[in-house]
Every structure is written in C-alpha cells, then in structure tokens.
Amino acid sequence: MTDKPKASAAQRRSAARFAAIQALYQAELSQLSAIDIVREYSDFRLDGDGGRDLDVSNEDLIDPDRGFFADLVQGVAARMIDIDALIDGALEKGWTTKRLETVLRSILRAGTYELMAREDVPMRVVITEYVDAAHSFFDENEPKLVNAVLDRIGKNLRPGEAGQN
Predict the structure, then answer these.
(1) pLDDT mean by block of 10 residues, the chain; 165 residues
(2) Contact yes or no for 11/93 (Cβ under 8 A)
(3) Contact 17, 110 (CB under 8 A)
C-alpha cells in the first residue's frame, strides 16, 4: 500500500464531514450507538491498520480528521432533539425532519450540529461544505434545500456572522 497524499487540514475536515454523513446514515439504519459507529469507522473504514480490508481503491482517499469526525458523529447523537427541532423550524411548513430521506437528514443534522457547536468553523464554510456533500448524493433540489435550511439555521444561531455575508 502506498502512503496517502498529504492533505491540508481543510481537506481532512472535508473528508471527516463526508465520513460523518455516512456514519450518521448507518447509525440511523442500524440503531448502533454513536460510540460504536465511531469505533467501527476508526477500525475498519477510515485509514489505518483496520483499513487493510477495504477495497484498494480507497488508497488515494484523504485521511479524515478523526477527532473532527468523532465530534460530529457523537455531537449529533448527543444533541439530536435540539438539532431536529432547529431543522424542523427551518423547513417549509408541513415538513419535518422525519419526512426527509435518511441521507438528506444526516447531512442536515451534521451541518446543524457544526453550526451549533463548532464556532471555530465559519458559517459560510459549514454551509458550502454540506451543500457540496449534498451534490455528491443528490441532484439539484436537495442541495438547494440543504443551502436554504442551513442558511436559516446559521442566521438564527450566528446572527453576527450572518450579517457579514
């Protein structure tokens, strides 16, 4: 196996966000705890010794920021009620988090958590990262929804930062 390419901190965080979306999706479908999901990803899905069982095409993937990944997954699990309430409040009337497709729900939950708890990451960066992630899974409408919902939540949670846009 060859060494992974050197990645910037921003690239490693982007990879962690993408892995967190997948882990949150898996957690919801499997009913595993956040701690178990983080452990499974660390042992078998992210780089490292456990990753040797993965398809060799993963060699060139960026090694995610593991601490950031764990914070996203465990943070969403710990604050799910508050996160879903914020998402519900930002959705169009008649829509709730429960009505959303599971991957879309995972994207919005991770993005909302990051807006809530990771003030070290600028609001615009959070929104852009999750809109980009949505483009990896969906066509036009879902990324627009992610943009609109996270923008509403961001303006609510970070009004000073939102005023700078």
Answers:
(1) 69 93 91 82 58 38 88 95 97 92 97 97 97 93 96 95 64
(2) no
(3) yes
